[in-house]
């Protein structure tokens, strides 16, 4: 089913914001929602990332798993959210390739030290150039 124009704009805003998260850093679903002006929608950010096309399935898509660093988005507690089979381990491996250290909690959850690797600016870096114009 095709997305409405409003849904398409939302997905695009999320993907563009995620593209600005620097290499080797992480942020939360909620922070992405806040940066794009909808702090009450962190779960919808997760939905967008869940539906991010795979680069192998859609290599020419403007937004896919190669062009949007989905792995840099974790929950606000610093944990990699559980998703389908193997999803958390893929995210862990992708973050480790960027130099992000992943720890294990007492419950076996994959965690990231937000004090070391967290990225929580007050606005998106792309907004700096918009404000200069």
UniProtKB/TrEMBL annotation:
Residues 11-100 form the Methylated-DNA-[protein]-cysteine S-methyltransferase DNA binding domain. It comes from the Eukaryota. GO terms for biological process: DNA repair. SUPFAM superfamilies: Methylated DNA-protein cysteine methyltransferase, C-terminal domain. Residues 79-133 are annotated as: Disordered. Pfam families: DNA_binding_1. GO terms for molecular function: catalytic activity. Keywords: DNA damage. This is Methylated-DNA-[protein]-cysteine S-methyltransferase DNA binding domain-containing protein. It comes from Hortaea werneckii EXF-2000. The lineage of its organism: Eukaryota, Fungi, Dikarya, Ascomycota, Pezizomycotina.
